[in-house]
Amino acid sequence: MARDYYEILGVERTIDAPGLKAAYRKLAMQHHPDRNGGSEDSMAIFKEISEAYTVLSDDQKRAHYDRFGHAGAGGGNPYGAGGGQGFHDINDIFSQVFGDAFGDAFGGRQGGGGRQGGPRRGSDLRYDLEITLEQAYKGADVEIAVPTTATCDTCEGSGAKPGTKPTTCTTCQGAGRVRSANGFFQVERTCPRCGGNGQMIAEPCQTCHGHGQVRK
């Protein structure tokens, strides 16, 4: 038996739109598959949360649900694929609530499909620096030496052994992400074969060991 949408989001039936969105944001961040290693359990919960929010955030669908419940007036699920516009992709819902940039970072919509070719982006730099209370209060100029990375000259950033080149991942077709159907939704996750790179390297560069970057 389907769970009550209000119960899924942990809200009262009198909840207003801002409160509803806040409840969805909290649960969506907690259970998003990309934050839980793509587990099937988190995927199922995330789908349930998104389904509930899709209905309750729409005034017309919410009124219909409040009156008829899951069954609707004529049986079946009026909120599913056969009921009106149906559900959007759950990652699109996530992007709409959190913003496109945030949604993309968690597996939302991606324009154009495949991963862009060329050198890979290096990791962010972090440097822990201890300062005195006086420096924190007044400010200070401190000279530091930070190890950095640069594009590998041997492979020119491709990560592949000279004379070879990366090939497009056949699992995700170069997109770096794969989709699977789950009920009414399409769930997107990082490609397990290429790790999100969109490419496979059969013979890694011996200088950078396939990373495309070297430490300086």
Tell me what you see in this structure:
The chain is of the alpha+beta class and 216 residues long. The chain has a domain at 5-105: Orthogonal Bundle (Helix Hairpins). Helices cover 31% and strands 10% of the residues. The protein contains 7 helices and 6 strands; from the N terminus they run αααααααββββββ. The chain has helices at residues 5-9, 17-31, 40-56, 59-68, 90-98, 100-105, 133-138, and strands spanning 149-151, 167-168, 177-182, 185-190, 199-200, 213-215. The chain has a two-stranded antiparallel ribbon with strand order 1-6. A hairpin with a 2-residue loop joins strand 3 (177-182) and strand 4. Helix 2 (17-31) runs antiparallel to helix 3 (40-56).
Short description:
The chain has 216 residues and is an alpha+beta fold.
The fraction of residues in strands falls at 5-15%
Number of helices: 7
Structural class: alpha+beta
Strand elements, count:
6
Q: What is the highest CATH level, the class of one domain?
A: Mainly Alpha
Radius of gyration: 24 Å
The CATH architecture of one domain can be given as: Orthogonal Bundle
Helix content: 25-40%
Q: Summarize the main sheet.
A: 2 strands, antiparallel
Ends distance: 60 Å
User: What is the strand arrangement across the widest sheet?
Assistant: 1-6
- Nearest-integer average pLDDT: 76
Per the principal axes of the C-alpha atoms, what is the gross shape?
flat
CATH topology name of one domain, in short, is: Helix Hairpins
- Stretches where pLDDT is under 50 for at least 5 consecutive residues are 78-88, 99-118
Order of helices and strands: HHHHHHHEEEEEE
